Amino acid sequence: MPESDAVFEAKHFGASAIQVEHEGSILKLHRQSEDCLTLNIGFEVKKTNKKRPVIVIFHHGDFSYGGSADPLMYFEKLVDEYTDFVGVSINYRLGIFGFIDFSEVPGGENYPDALNLGLLDQIAALTWIKENISAFGGDPDNITVMGFESGAISINLLAACEQAKGLFRKAFIFFGSPDGGYYTPDAARSFAKELLEETETKSMDELQRLSTEQLKDANQKIALNRIAPTCDGKLIPVNVFDAYKNGVADGIEFIIGIPSHEGSVYKSFIGEENYEKVISENIEEILSSYLDADTAAAVRNYIENQAKNMTELEAKGKFFEQWSALSMYISAMQLVAGGNKVHLMYWDVKPLIENLGSGTVDAVSTFFGNSKTAQMYGNVLDPAISEILQRFLNKFLGGESLRLYNNEIKGVKDIDWKKFPYALIVSNKKFKCEPIEDKLNEIDGVLEFMKKKAQLMRKNKIL
Length: 463
What we know:
The structure is a single chain. By secondary structure, the chain is of the alpha/beta class. It has helices at 76-81, 117-132, 150-158, 186-199, 204-207, 212-222, 240-245, 262-270, 272-289, 293-306, 312-337, 360-368, 371-376, 383-398, 437-440, 446-453, and strands at residues 39-42, 52-58, 86-90, 138-148, 170-174, 253-259, 342-347, 403-404, 415-416, 422-427, 430-435. Strands 1-3-2-4-5-6-7-10-11 form a 9-stranded mixed β-sheet, sandwiched between helices. The radius of gyration is 21 Å and the shape is globular. The two termini are 39 Å apart.
């Protein structure tokens, strides 16, 4: 935006990005626009000469839906409780508006950045925050990014991005690893071909004549659960895991959160039919393209045995959940090898309603203290767990040791959150810190295989 002395009223959320509308998506009720690149700043208004730590929140949504206006992303209660930091939430472009490669479309050569515009939006937001947050009492040299699902994947990728260097010092990521990015532009180019077919267009000139509604309709069909950034070797290294090990994320401190019951939550968002398609396609790709014959056979046997006591879809979902958790674990392992300080968190809180699961929604609600949001998604906030995790988050933002001392919180004993390979295991009314490899590895050979392959170049979406 050009510089201006004009004052404008900013009491309400800006429009959300054009997005896919799932049955379980609350944001389909919020207005959408291509003019969506806004951010929201919250802080306690009190006089102080001390610059406050800044936390920037990246929303979830498979890179196809979501936004800062989602009640799940509200952080007012956290700011009210802990007044010594500034909170910021951001929007970024989604779906075909944010992640599509037009290089093979006539005229598309003029838009070389289209395949990662959503990531560039995030970098632009962080750059603005770095340059302007001091006017709101924030410390531009103490910025922490916090992301969930696709927001967490984004942060994983930005940590390896030269263009994002120095824009944040700490990262809290929950349920996301670099696996969420494609490893060649092939997939992003295929979306462009589908877009031309769906809209009956042949060039960029014709695409740009389409209305927002026409593009939104096409996005609803094309972007469903499949859109992602691309590790193109320019903005993002082709092999982020290997880059981690080589120290690309030097100077960034991490908390990596791994959920244990995320599958049911994800299914409730996108619907069982979409969930079955996503899980089946991803597992088939893992079995056919990424595992050696012996490990693939072990996975098939595991799914077959699990299916004796549950549906086949549930068995596949259980394996895919483990695969995702192991990817996050490998990410932590590579970061530590590159010299980064990493703390793991394992979210093992049991769901109130078993079929809804307990994962990102509950973790976000707990960290932000949003009891109403937890209820909206079918669960109940545990205030005791929330108080402990909020205290840990506040310590992380302020650069303090991740340790709670006896009676620092009334009735809570000493909790020492040790660094990787230990993990803080969060369960109902109980916190403990211990290694978690055994919790992530029910199938012989999978973890060992992933460790061996962590350094190798990948060519598709999955590790």
